[in-house]
Amino acid sequence: MFSYIMLGTNDLPAAIAFYDPLMALLGHPQSGRNEEGASWGTFSGNGTSGLCVGRPFNKQPATVGNGVMVALNAESPEQIQQLHNLALTLGGTDEGEPGYRPHYGEGFYSAYIRDPDGNKLAFVYYDFTD
């Protein structure tokens, strides 16, 4: 559905230090980096799927969008717990502890954090074991 997601940052080294361990835990090591940004994922033409962080192209301060959130697939509820804990130790802020959220659908397990720039992330697992 999407090619890549771009999140703005005002502190690129801090953003890379935040995302590198999280994306590695999800199985997506850093795939690109320059003085303006970094990326994780697979970048191969129409098969591209990635997450990028970088300084805004217009050279204005990065800001967050109200109602904007990036949801990242996890492999299990246990991995979501690990991701949530790791994000908090890396300077993220809690926006919702790991747990089932039946109001979003049966088997929907997630946790929510904000990165150091204030971008909202969700770690999501669809538990259809029943």
Description of the molecule:
- The protein is an alpha/beta fold.
- Helices cover 21% and strands 37% of the residues.
- It contains 2 helices and 8 strands; from the N terminus they run βαββββαβββ.
- It has helices at 12-25, 77-89; strands at 4-8, 30-33, 37-42, 49-54, 69-73, 93-100, 108-114, 120-126.
- It has a 4-stranded mixed β-sheet, with helices on one face. It has a 4-stranded mixed β-sheet with strand order 5-8-7-6, covered by helices on one side.
- Strand 6 (93-100) and strand 7 form a beta hairpin.
- Helix 1 runs antiparallel to helix 2.
- The longest helix is centred in the first third of the chain and has 14 residues, at 12-25.
- The chain is globular, with a radius of gyration of 15 Å.
Helix and strand arrangement:
Layout: E1 4-8, H1 12-25, E2 30-33, E3 37-42, E4 49-54, E5 69-73, H2 77-89, E6 93-100, E7 108-114, E8 120-126
List the main descriptive attributes of the protein structure presented here:
single chain; 130 residues; alpha/beta; 4-stranded mixed β-sheet; 2 helices; 8 strands; 37% strand
